[in-house]
Amino acid sequence: MRTHRIWASAAAAALSVLALFAPAATAAEAPARAGAAAVQPIIGGGYAQSGPWAARLLSNGRETCSATIIAPTWILTAKHCVTGGGLSFRIGSLDQHSGGTLANGVQTYTHSADLALVRLDRSVTATYARLGQPGSVTVGQNVQVYGWGATSQCGSEATCQSRYLKVANVTVTGGCRDAYSGSAICARRGDGITAGGDSGGPMMANGVQVGVASTSDRQTTTAYTNVTAYRSWIQSVAGV
């Protein structure tokens, strides 16, 4: 399978984000019963036991990306996830098909890096993701990544995204560039790696969000836009 890399040009960036962005799931696995063989989510990893700040992004009714709610009316996700328009979100549920709170996006703000903020049409009561500051994450640190993306390097990702929120441990390897040449945090595979549909989801370090999923080679390396580097922009738009 072709490896997707981080590129400098806009055209190549459009290719690299395909490593994460994917069609909506039409079939999904359920959490394994006791004694049953586990279906591996993300690629590897496991099922999240908690993620009250998690939001599943839908574009024109199709489940496409992951995101987080960071304030009552604000969603944080990847820029390449919001280009299709018609945005809506299921917020605060581990199950992308039910539960939580549904809200629509009414205004979208994008950064030159692979970041987007979406203002909701209503105030949502939730546990909001706390955003990290510079120094919140270090090289060699074990961090967690979350999303509803593909569970294998399948040929048709429409049939292999997870119904339930997944989590994997990865190890920070240093700074790098995201799909739009923005500041990013690179990490190597731990017990799993991100794939299609995990785009826009969070990288969490000690309980605070430090990154937004941008690219992945689906095998060993993933790049997350560095939230801590863009705190002033997020503050200026969303007030958090």
Summarize, please.
This protein has helices at 10-16, 231-238; strands at residues 43-44, 46-47, 54-59, 62-71, 74-77, 87-91, 101-110, 116-120, 142-147, 166-177, 183-189, 192-193, 202-205, 208-216, 221-226. By secondary structure, the chain is mainly beta.
Kindly describe this structure.
Keywords: Disulfide bond, Hydrolase, Signal. This is Hydrolase. GO terms for molecular function: hydrolase activity. The protein is mostly beta strands and 240 residues long. It has 2 helices and 15 strands. β13 and β14 form a beta hairpin. The longest helix has 8 residues, at 231-238. It is globular. Residues 1-16 and 22-41 have low confidence and may be disordered.
The name CATH uses for the topology of the largest domain is Thrombin, subunit H
Instruction: Identify the CATH homologous superfamily of the largest domain.
Output: Trypsin-like serine proteases
CATH class category of the largest domain: Mainly Beta
- Share of helical residues: under 10%
Query: In what range is the share of β-strand residues?
Result: 35-45%
Keywords: Disulfide bond, Hydrolase, Signal
Family: Belongs to the peptidase S1 family.
Protein name: Hydrolase
GO molecular function: hydrolase activity
